[in-house]
Amino acid sequence: MRQSLIVGNWKMNGSRAANTALIGDFVSCMAQLGKTDSDVKSAVCVPFVYLDQVGQLVNAESESPGAIKLGAQDVSLHVEGAYTGEISAVMLADMDCKYVIVGHSERREYHHESNFLVGQKALAALQAKLTPIVCVGETLEQRESNSTLAVIEEQLTAVKSIIGEKNLSRIVVACEPVWAIGTGLTASPEQAQEVHQFIRAQLGADADKISLLYGGSVKPGNASELFQCPDIDGALVGGASLDAKSFSDIVSAASI
Ligand code: PEP
What we know:
Blueprint: E1 4-9, H1 16-33, E2 40-45, H2 51-59, E3 69-72, H3 89-94, E4 99-102, H4 105-110, H5 115-127, E5 131-136, H6 140-144, H7 148-163, E6 172-175, H8 189-202, E7 212-215, H9 220-227, E8 234-237, H10 244-254
Parallel strand pairs: 1-2, 1-8, 2-3, 3-4, 4-5, 5-6, 6-7, 7-8
Bound molecules: phosphoenolpyruvate.
C-alpha cells in the first residue's frame, strides 16, 4: 500500500527562532484542523545545522496530530573520512533523520550533480537505512523539445542500476518539473499525472509500494486537484512549507 507523504523542503531558510515558531504553529494548525489519522505522513527537510534543533522540536510532538518526521536536503556519497564540508548518511541517521532528498534540481544545476552521483547518494542513504527522496524532472527547454519522458527515464535508470531493482521499494520519488520550482507555475493535473504514470511504469514489480510525490509550486489552492491524480501520492513542497498554515492545509488536502 502506498503511503501518502508531504515533505517540506526548507532549502537555505530558517533560524533557531523561526524554526521554533514554524514547528509550533504547524502543530497548532494541525490540531485546529482536527486531523488525527496517520494516513498522511509529513516531514521537513531542514538545513544541516538545524537538524538537532528541529529533531528535538519534532520529537516533542511525536504523539500529536502535527507529528512530523525529520529529513535532510543532501548527503555525501562517502561514508566517512577526508571529505571537508560533507555530511554522511550515517551522520544523518545518527541525528534521527528518516529522509534525505537526493538529486534536487538545485543541486543538479548549481553543483553539477550527475545522474550517476545522485544514484550513489541514494545508495549511501539506503545503506544507512534512510529513505532517499529521489528528485527527477525536466527543464522547460526539455519539455518544449518533447524530451520530458526520455530525460526522466535516464534519471531513473541511473538510480535503478546503482541501487538495484530489489531496493526500489525503499525509495520515494519526487517528480519536479524544474520550470515549476519556485516559479509559481504548476504542472496541470493532466501533465503531472502523465509523468507520474510513466514513472510508476519504470519502477518494476514493486511500483505500487513506492510513493510518488509531485513538486513544483504546490500551494493549498492547487494541492487537492493534484492529489486526486491516481499516481500522485503526495508532494515535495518548497516555499509553502515555510508557512505553517499553508503547509498544514496541504497536509490536510492529502488526507481527504
Ligand atoms: C522544491 O524545492 O522542491 C519545490 C518544489 O519548491 P517550490 O514548492 O517552492 O516550487
